[in-house]
Amino acid sequence: MAADRPVKRKRKGSGSTGQGGEVLLRQRTDPRSERRFEPKASLELALTLLGMSVAALLAGAGVYGQWFRGEEAGAHPAAPYLLVGALLLGAAAGLFGQWSMKPVRVGDAGVALENGPGEIERIGWSEVTGLLLSESALTVQGGGTVIAVPLRAHLAAASRVLSEARKRIPGRVADIKEDALPAPDDAAGEVRPLEPPQVAGLHCKATDKLIAFEADARLCGRCGELYHKDGVPPRCITCEAPLR
Ligand SMILES: [Zn+2]
C-alpha cells in the first residue's frame, strides 16, 4: 500500500527556520516584487518647515537691518540679534527636525531608501548584518550602508521590514522583541514588480565561481543570496533556506 510514493524526508533539528520543505531556489528572471511606502506627513515635518521658514525670514530681516539700510540710517541695533536668532533657529530645525522623509521600499530585494529620482540606496537581505530598534527608528545595517526607517513617518514600512526580516533572516533579528512593532498591514504600501537583479560579474556565495552569464545565476528566494548554477548548496549559506 502506497509503496512507491516518494518518501518525504522529515527534517529534524534546526526547528527555528520551519519553512516546510519548500525549495526556494529562484532563477534570475523569476518575478520579484516589493512594497513602496510614502512617508506619513507629520507634525514634526510641519514644525521643521515652519522653523526653517521663520529662520529664513529672520535672516533676511537681519541682513537687511545690518547692511542694507543705507549710509545715513546705519545698522539697526536689533539686526545682530535677528541674525543670531535666525542662526539658532535654523540650526535647531536642522538638528532636531525630521528630514528623513524619503519613500521606503521593502520586498524581495531587501530594504531600500529613495534618495532621489532614480537614486535608490538598497541593502539586500543577504547583506544585512543586524537590525536595531530604538524609540524613533528601525535601523537596518549591512553592506557598508545603514538605512534608518523613522517610526513616526514610516511605521507601516518599519513593521513590514521587521516582519520580513523575521521570516527571511531570523538569526539577525533575534534581539528585537516579538511584539515590538505592530503586525504589518497588507493594505499599506503599493506593491510593485522588481527588475531582475544585475548579477553578471558577481561571484557565487558557495564556490566563489564568477557568474559570467546572467543565465548561470541562481538566487535564494528567501534572502536573495547569489549562487552559480553549478554551485548551489543544499541549504542557503546565509539563511539556511532549502535550495535543492
Ligand atoms: Zn538565503
Automatic annotation (TrEMBL):
<keyword id="KW-0812">Transmembrane</keyword>
<feature type="transmembrane region" description="Helical">
    <location>
        <begin position="79"/>
        <end position="97"/>
    </location>
</feature>
<feature type="region of interest" description="Disordered">
    <location>
        <begin position="1"/>
        <end position="37"/>
    </location>
</feature>
<protein>
    <submittedName>
        <fullName>Uncharacterized protein</fullName>
    </submittedName>
</protein>
<feature type="compositionally biased region" description="Basic and acidic residues">
    <location>
        <begin position="25"/>
        <end position="37"/>
    </location>
</feature>
<keyword id="KW-1133">Transmembrane helix</keyword>
<feature type="transmembrane region" description="Helical">
    <location>
        <begin position="45"/>
        <end position="67"/>
    </location>
</feature>
<keyword id="KW-0472">Membrane</keyword>
